[in-house]
Structure formats: structure tokens, C-alpha cells
Amino acid sequence: MRIFEIAAFAVRGLTANKMRSGLTTLGILIGVASVILLIAVGNGASSAVQQSIAGLGTNILTISPLRAQPGSTVKPLTTADAAALVGPDSPDVKYASPVVSAQATAGYGTTSYAISQFIGSDPRYFETTNSAVAQGNLFSDNDVQQARKVVVIGATVATQLFPGLDPIGKSMLVNNIPFTVIGVLAAKGSSGLQDADDMAVAPLTTTQNALTGYGSLTQIVVQARSADALPNAQAQVTTILNGRHKITTTPDYRILSQDQLLTARTATTETFTVLLASVAAISLLVGGIGITNIMLVTVTERIREIGIRKAVGAPRSSILGQFLIEATLLSLFGGALGVAAGLIGSQFTIAGIKPVLVPSSVLLAFAVSALIGLFFGSYPASRAAKLRPIEALRHE
Amino acid sequence: MSPVIEVRDLRKTYGAGDTAVHALRGLDLTVEQGEYIAIMGASGSGKSTLLNILGCLDVPTSGKYLLDGIDTGDFDEEQLSLLRNRKIGFVFQSFNLVPRTTALANVELPLVYAGVRRAQRRERALAALDLVGLTDRTHHRPNELSGGQQQRVAIARALVTSPAIVLADEPTGNLDTDSSREVLGILDRLNASGRTVVLITHEDSVAAHAMRTVRVVDGCVHSDGVAGVLV
User: Fold this and answer.
1) For the segment A303-340, what is each residue's pLDDT rounded down to a tens digit?
2) Which of A105, A224, A244, B118 is deepest in the core (most CB within 10 A)?
3) What is the pLDDT of residue A68?
4) What are the domain boundaries of chain A?
5) A304 contact residues in B (CB cutoff 8 A)
6) Which whole-number Å values give the CA distances from B56 to A369, B68, B72, B196, in the listed order?
7) CATH dotted code for B34-57+76-226
8) B117 touches chain A (CB under 8 A)
9) B85: closest chain A residue by CA
10) Chain A residues in contact with chain B using a Cβ-Cβ cutoff of 8 Å
11) Which of A82-91, A162-171, B79-88 has the lowest mean pLDDT?
């Protein structure tokens, strides 16, 4: 019967000190919004990684050399290794593309730009990595054999180095060696932590000549005939490489399938999400402690008022109710605003990542904020309610 | 008919052991329906402690306190709050109005806790404010009222629930002469209409309004008699 009246007292108590109520609300708002937003960012990053890996296809194996361990020798992965992987001994292998990569500084006119991945490979590389050409052409097997200085550049490189210009046919300097741009790849977007368009691809032979030298390949990318043939292809590749490298115990290379890559990358981004979520949880906790603090101050400041209310016959439950409702209103209001801020914030791209909302995180953050109000409000409220009227009235 | 207030061997001790302070040492007092009593005594005599216990704001260490024939010693905190709400109207020296709240809302406060409906509450609160002559100040906040006006709001709040007794702890202690006269006039009228009034005062002129004066010395009743004639 009186609950409505008590709620009215609580609202009056909050509006009597708008500044303080506003700041407390802000604390909860930031906590809730950051939980929602940071989890959405983490989730967005991991789904971007999954998409980019899934885009590579499910029939790909990546072979990379391992670092030399003490007491063992490591044979480099060579172009000959790559060539040997395609043949009658490996009926399930469709292609094997040798890949070298390096960082390179490219220049055009007075502009210069550091390309984070300058890749040398063969034309199959574009197919296995799902790279489509947006402008111009890709290079051919003939370009590889002739070691022509041609290059296909990623979208980021195109905009950085040739702003407002058509890059096709232009000659750009890569580590002071002129390359002719023959194509621009379609933009792939960011894969979470790195920009997939910040790259350039040139023929393997040319890249080895100009940049990397003739040491070990960075990778051999093997394409199986189908996704189902992948385990067989992996076994055949292992047999051939073990034979060529005379491996008896531990191999000096590593084979990763897309599945394994996906698992590894997902684990990384999950850690990232957990990290973000825990930072957000801490800010929510700090917001809750803010509420407790404000409620303690409010109660202390209003002990006389509590004494007056008790003197005119307010029962303990109504005093408790009034302060609990005050605390809960603060955190519910802050929580609601925080959800709104989180939802609005997640519409924007943050640090190159498109946030993907997790509905349960919205629910969780809101519920936690409401509980924080009840939990952190209950201590000062019960302290206030327990006072004897005369003690409260004498309080200065 | 049983007396409104019956106090037997009332004791109140603060602290314990060697530092214990005995505010009341076995005080007896009986107040009949419709009486107007002034309690006088030096500071530290225990008169305020007595009034606080009579108002159920404090509990005695030992002894019996019967309010309207009910033994308050059997009551828990919830029942005491109900007693404070229904049976007692308390007027403080320092007014004790809820700050930032209008006079009307202050007077309505006890009725809210009594569960009276909004319309009836408003009607009764306005009637109480009319009784103390403040119908033109209903929407003023305490900081917009003079001391005398604040005390009249406090009296309106004390009588709005039609309590069995009105207790006043030095109601004119913070007021100038004119305001004191108004406040005492209201208390006189309340008593004339049959309400039991118990007030604490230092001043003989205030005590002269009462029918009976009780002097408290060292936590006991020292003398008790009709005004001016102490026995």
C-alpha cells in the first residue's frame, strides 16, 4: 500500500541532489556501456578473423619452416620442394605455391610507403587466397619464368601510394628497384588485428632477385583437390617432404590446415575478448563501489532526516525501502543509459573493427547493474534503518 | 479510566561500569487524560531523557512505561514505530522538519506512514495547518519560513494524527518572545480542546501555562504540584 509513497520519497531524495545522482549514474553508465561495447568489439574481431580464414577455403595446407633447434639441422624449404609436392606420388595435391614474403618500402614520385607484406609467389597464389583483381591484370606463369618486374598491389597500398591516380602502368620503386604496377586487388578489409589490404604480390623469381634472396621459402601453400581430400593430401605432403629432408624423428617444418589455423586464431581472439570483458567488468565494479559510496554519504548526510521520519512513525522497512529504491533507481537508470550508449557505440567501426553485439552481454550488463544497486545499496540502507530515532536525531 | 501515561521506577543508564551515567534513577510519574504538564529541571537532570522515553524515541534500561494502558516494554521496534505514529505527537526544540520539503508535505509525513489515502491526507494536513494559522504557507519549504512558523508546522505535524499525547521538548527554546507567545497559545488551545500536553521548559513564564509542574532533579521527581504551588 505504501510502496508507491516510499518510491516517491526515493525519487524526491534523488532529485534533491541532481549533480550527485547524475555523477553516480554516469559511473554505472560507463561501466555498462563498456561491458557491452568491449565484448562487441572482441566478438567483432574474432568473427572478422573467422571470416577471413574461412574465405581462404577449407582445402588449403600451409607449410612453413621451423626454427633450428640446438643439436639439429634444418633444411630450408625450397622451390624444388614445392615443385616436388605436385606429382604422381601425391594424387590429392592440386597445386603447391612457393611463397616468400618480406617487408618493403615502396616509393612513387615523392611519396613513400612501407608495405607490411611484400609477397613473391606464382599465379596460383591468387586463387588459393581468394584474391580477386579489381583493376588491371594478375601476373602469369610467363612473368614468373622471365622474372619480370611486375607487381599487383593491395587496396591500401594503392590509396597510400597513388592517391587520386590510376596506378596501372605506373612504375613504383620497391627498395629502389622499379616495378611496374599491373593490377590492384579488390579490398578485403581488416581481419581484426591486421590490414589484409596492406600488401603487394610480385612473381616469386623477381621477389627473390630483388628482395629476399634465395634462402628458405616463407611458406608453401598447398591446395588439395577437395576439402575431403585434405587429410590424404596432408599425409602425402608429409611423406614427400620427410623423404626430401631425410626426416626420421622430428620434422623441420610445420603443416597447418585452415581448421588448425582457425582454431589457433579463434583462441587468440577469445583471449582478447576475455581481456576486454574483464577490463569492462572492473569498470562496472568501480561504478558499483561509486554507488555504495554515494549511498553511504547520502545516508550519513541524512541521518537527521531518518531520525525525523522514525520519530513520526516510519517503520524500519519503509526507511530500508526508501534507500534501496534510491540505489536501485540510480543503477537501473545508469544501466538503461549504458545499454543505450553501448548500442549506439556499437554502430560505429572502432579501431578498424566492426563491433558485433552479443545479446547476452547486454542482458548481463543490465542485470548486473540492477543487482549492483540492490547489493551495494543494501548495506548503507540497512545501516540507516537500524538507527534508533534518538540516536539519529542527535546526529550532527 | 486508566491514566494516559503511567511510569513506574523508570531507570536509564548510559555506558557501563565506572563510567556509567545514571540519567534516570527510579522515576515515577502519572499523567491523566487532558492534563497540561510542565517538566522543569536543570541541564543533566534527566528531563529530556524522560521525554524521549515517553515519546518512544528511546527505551528505558529498566522500569515500566504504560502508554494509554499499554506496556511499551513488550513492544519491538516495529510496534514502537506504530505507537509513535498513532499515539504520540512530538515537538522538538530545533523543529526537525524534513529539509527541502514543503510545509504541507512535512505535515502529511506521519499520515503517509499511517497509510492514509492521498485525498484524506491532504484534507487533514490542511486542517492541521489551519489550526496553527499557516494556511498561506503550505507550499513553503522550511528554509523559507521563520523559526516561529517552522515550529508551528512542527506542531501541526505533531497533532495531525490526533495523538493521545503531545510532547514538546523546550518548544520555545529557539524562538523570540512573539513567536513563543504564538506557539504557547496554540498549545494552550490544544489542551483546552482536551488534548494531553507534556512540555519541558527552563522558564517559569512558560511553565505558568501548565496546570501542573513537575521538577526533576538527579533523575527523580523532586516536586510535583499545581502551577506555582509546589508540594
Assistant:
1) 888 889 999 988 888 888 888 888 888 888 888 898 89
2) A224
3) 66
4) 3-51+265-394, 67-251
5) 96
6) 39, 13, 8, 16
7) 3.40.50.300
8) no
9) A313
10) 1-2, 5, 12, 16, 304-305, 307-318, 388-390, 393
11) A82-91
